[in-house]
């Protein structure tokens, strides 16, 4: 028998399973979704934003503690200028709406990534959303904007090196937990499950440190077509795996 043969699934419904605490989603496929329909790429991003709202609320409603979504990577700046401009406008529209739309939700909004490149009005909206939601007691929603896993680690290493230089920290104190405490996700559990729609088999520089023991589920559906039933399928797939964390 092959050691890679999967065990026959035991769970068939999310009501039977223990949900992961932290889910990461690489929201991939907006451009291809638009191209298949003869639409501009911006139309795919608009459709993807609608899917994001729906899935974020669904995760909150079923009891997920932390959801991290990959909205815009450090590499996405290489895209055509008109597409980037459309994305920035979409982000701005979303942040303006979220102040109103999420005000009755328990969702806590956080933005992870390098904010220094964003416009003042976008930065102001990020801060306002975080301030408005910080005292809520529900799911933490991390929106990764201008985020890259390698860049995050570089930022963390610079922070640690600076504190060692200033005498706030000894080199001997550096361990895995300390490195985690210098990341954007400080104080949050590492992702148990990372979902990548669109069928691509890449991590794409997403939560590189945090995902060391995450389960990945790759799904052959473009993000704008992703529905609650796709998330349920991924959750069941996750529940039917045997997580050993390097043990037996």
Work out the helix count. Answer: 7
Q: Give the termini separation.
A: 18 Å
**Percentage of residues in strands:** 5-15%
- The residue-averaged pLDDT reads 91
Structural class: alpha/beta
Low-confidence stretches: 1-5
Order of helical and strand elements = EHHEHEHEHHEEH
Shape, please?
A: globular
The assembly state of the depicted protein chains is single chain
The largest sheet, given as strand count, sense and whether it forms a barrel, is: 6 strands, parallel
Task: Kindly provide the radius of gyration, computed on alpha-carbon positions and rounded to a whole number of angstroms.
Answer: 19 Å
Give a short overview.
This protein is α/β, with parallel strands linked by helices.
What do these coordinates show?
This protein is α/β, with parallel strands linked by helices. The chain has helices at 30-36, 41-62, 81-101, 120-133, 149-165, 176-181, 228-239, and strands at residues 22-26, 66-73, 108-112, 140-147, 193-197, 215-219. The chain contains seven helices and six strands, in the order βααβαβαβααββα. Strand 3, helix 4 (120-133) and strand 4 (140-147) form a beta-alpha-beta unit. Helix 1 crosses helix 2 and helix 2 runs parallel beside helix 3. The longest helix is centred in the N-terminal third of the chain and has 22 residues, at 41-62. It is globular and about 55 Å long.
């Amino acid at each position: 028998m092959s050691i890679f043969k999967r065990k026959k699934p035991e769970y068939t419904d999310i009501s039977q399973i223990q949900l992961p605490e932290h889910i990461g989603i690489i929201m991939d496929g907006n451009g291809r979704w638009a191209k298949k329909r003869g639409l501009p790429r911006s139309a795919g991003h608009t459709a993807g934003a609608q899917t994001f709202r729906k899935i974020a609320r669904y995760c909150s409603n079923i009891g997920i503690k932390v959801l991290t979504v990959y909205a815009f990577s450090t590499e996405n700046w290489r895209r055509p200028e008109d597409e980037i401009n459309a994305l920035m406008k979409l982000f701005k529209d979303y942040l303006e709406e979220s102040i109103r739309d999420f005000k009755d939700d328990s969702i806590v909004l956080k933005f992870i990534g390098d904010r220094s490149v964003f416009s003042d009005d976008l930065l102001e909206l990020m801060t306002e959303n975080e301030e408005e939601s910080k005292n809520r007691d529900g799911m933490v929603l991390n929106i990764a904007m201008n985020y890259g896993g390698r860049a995050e680690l570089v930022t963390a290493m610079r922070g640690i090196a600076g504190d060692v230089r200033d005498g706030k920290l000894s080199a001997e104190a550096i361990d895995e937990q300390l490195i985690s405490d210098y990341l954007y996700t400080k104080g949050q559990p590492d992702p148990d499950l990372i979902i990548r729609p669109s069928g691509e088999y890449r991590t794409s520089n997403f939560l590189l440190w945090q995902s060391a023991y995450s389960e990945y589920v790759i799904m052959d559906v473009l993000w704008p077509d992703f529905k609650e039933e796709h998330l349920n399928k991924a959750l069941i797939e996750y529940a039917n795996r045997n997580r050993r964390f390097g043990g037996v």
